[in-house]
Amino acid sequence: MATTLFPLDLPEREWTEFDAAGFDRPVAGCIHRGTRPPDCGMPLGSVGSGCIDLEADGTWGLSTLFNSLNPRRGPLQVPVLGLCVGLQTWVLTTREVSRRRGILWMDLCRGGRQYQDPLPVREIHYWGHYPVADLEFVSEAPIRVGLRAWSPFLPGDVPASIAPGAVFEVHLRNDSDAAQHGTLACSFPGPSEAEAGTRRLRRRPLTGRLQGVAVSGRKAAYALGVLDEPAVRVGGDLGVEALSWACIAHDLPWAEHQPGTALAVDFDLAPGASRVIRFVLTWYSPQWQGSGNPAGSGNTYTHMYAAHYRSATAVARWLARHHADLLHRVLAWQQEVYAERDLPPWLRDGLVNILHQITETAVWGQARPPIGAWCRPEDGIFALNESPRWCPQMECIPCSFYGNLPLVYLFPELALSTLRAYQGYQYPSGAAPWVFGGVTTGTPPYELALPSPGYASRPQATLDGPCYVEMVDKLWQRTGDDAVLREFYASVKQNTAFTMNLRPGAGAAGIVSMPTDNLANDWFESCELFGIVPHIGGAHLAQLRLAGRMARAMGDEAFATQCEQWFNDGSQVLEQEAWAGTHYLLFHERETGKVSDVVMGYQLDGEWMARFHGLPGVFRSERVDQTLATLKTTSVALSPFGAVTFCKAEAAALTPADWDPGYWGAHGVHPPGTFMLAMTYAYRGQVEFGLELARRTVHEVVQRGWYWDWPVAIDALQGPRTGFDYYQNMVLWSLAAAARGQDLTGPCQAGGLVDRITRAAGAR
């Protein structure tokens, strides 16, 4: 008897370890089910290729395959697969596909044949381990069905990882005592009229080893084929029409000029036999509009994948030739993560699945106008969108500060592309850009050539600098390549001088303060801050630690000395005027006497920045420990799944009379901030506590069905979340080092996790 892809008796939405097909050692995973699906399924797609969600209920979900970026198309809620044995068809979804049950009816248009009303499946067991989704379908059919769907996401291999395509491996198993004849069908809806740029699409047959059809319009194309099957029937997509699914054994809908496609394959299975049928889906829509809408406005950009692959058919034939090797390499790099036995199961699974945010948010534009001549053809501009369905803007700099570590680790050339854009857009003052284009600055959400310093009324300059310098240092430290430092040092130096002089006339206090007139935002925006702000001050001090190390490596002793002087002066002011006895004040403005004792849950972010980069901390050591102890009884104690962003010093939630925390609210938890806090505990020797704090946050995300749709804030009172697909949550990857007391370079050393992942993914 053929086995399933993974065990079906595993708990739902809880982490466990189990054996799975294609792995020679146990994996760590979290199972969802189609009768209680997550808000979004795992996306199929790779790096800057566009993606489509494969839902746990067996349907297609949200799609950006054809550049419906804002708003996204969908969720489509159309079934993917159907199985017919005898007169009965099972549509492989837990959704209802027909109101009828248990009757035979006749279709005179198809020769008077009789068809049983199609049935949904009873359950779907769903294990997503990006870029692979494994599904096991439970029904009354005599054939058991499993699906392994995957895209070629291969750390270290950029050309393979930008291929716009996916493979669907359908496992058929006959556990009955009789031979079974049946039909398997796959249906894909294709592009919308706006996406295709036409109502009448051209269809060309795929022949040879890959049989199916290539469909093309003016702006979009795709190919859908079946690999190594002697006979394949081609028709229009089946949609949600019961009759269309019921007829798959004999007929498929008329397809001429239609956008969608269905393929049907007949099979015979002896008792106890099994086989795999492979469908290949590729897409090709080489240009997007800055508006994010294929029928919209804005500048036109060209995807980098179009420089490597000439058509959807070319991608399909490449996947057909290399599918076995590609899947082997995908599972091999995942096995390296699962083999990290000193990391808890939830973290191993999280490291794998959080990478889906790259495909959800990334675009990679070629070096063509309107992008400036400074952009290199080999680089283009690689950028991530802060939150495509909530706050769509390209490369919001604190989001990349938090979340670009997986790129730095796994695709450093992409991180370099992004940094070169930041440097190219740096302002003469030394300020770093806030975004490359997007909604908070009044420009279209998918622009790459409309940079801005931030909100018009309250720019973000006070923390953009620490973000920029941190990202440069991160890439330098990860690669060990001094060419990175030489390329960016002048801009780092200029930005650091700019950042330390944002409040002229305030003396040393200006180093750790809001800018003049307090006209700026913290990362935790939408709230009023004044004067000395320890959260901002700590980040500034961390920037000085990083910039000073760079200066010494460059032989610039004068600037290294200046950074040290700024650090000492700023630190002295911060420690003297912002310490509240058990924690740091929220703010203290000496000029006006404004003081707030509100506890900020993430006030020690600067400490984490320095420690993660292998440098001494920025706050007094004993005060770090005291603050961490205070946070346990305040911010952490007030949430069951993280640390609330702001609260009272007496361990109580804020009220409207206390201070307005803006959209963070009195109970809001910031998952990336919680992960930074968790790592700060780890770096102070409290590894077990830190990991448990982070686990509680990830567990809450899983329980609420957001594992492939991470928010930026969660309300502790079960209220609505804030945001979708926030890639800053990829800071989770930092825990792989912090849990071992390492800095960011630890996993990159020979034999370290990053080193093993990239080696396994590159094995051929």
Describe the structure in your own words.
This protein has 20 helices and 34 strands. The chain is globular and about 90 Å long. It starts with 14 loop residues before the first strand and ends with a helix. The relative contact order is 0.09. The strands form 9 sheets. A 10-stranded antiparallel beta sheet has the order 1-2-12-13-14-15-22-19-18-17, with helices on both faces. A 6-stranded mixed beta sheet has the order 11-8-7-16-21-20, with no helix packed on it. It has a 4-stranded antiparallel beta sheet with strand order 3-4-5-6. It folds into 2 domains: 15-296, Beta-galactosidase, Chain A, domain 5, CATH 2.70.98.40; 369-762, Glycosyltransferase, CATH 1.50.10. It has 764 residues and is α+β, with helices and mostly antiparallel strands.
Question: Spans of 5+ residues with little confidence (pLDDT < 50)?
Answer: 100-105
Q: What share of the residues lie within helices?
A: 25-40%
The strand count comes to 34
**Residue fraction in strands:** 15-25%
Distance between the termini: 31 Å
Report the CATH C-level class of the largest domain.
Mainly Alpha
Query: Helical element count?
Result: 20
CATH architecture of the largest domain: Alpha/alpha barrel
Q: Report the structural category.
A: alpha+beta
The biggest beta sheet, please? 10 strands, antiparallel
3D shape: globular
In the residues, how many domains can be counted?
2
| CATH fold descriptor of the largest domain | Glycosyltransferase
Taking Cα atoms only, what radius of gyration do you get, to the nearest Å?
27 Å
Could you report the average pLDDT, rounded to the nearest whole number? 95
Strand order of the largest sheet: 1-2-12-13-14-15-22-19-18-17
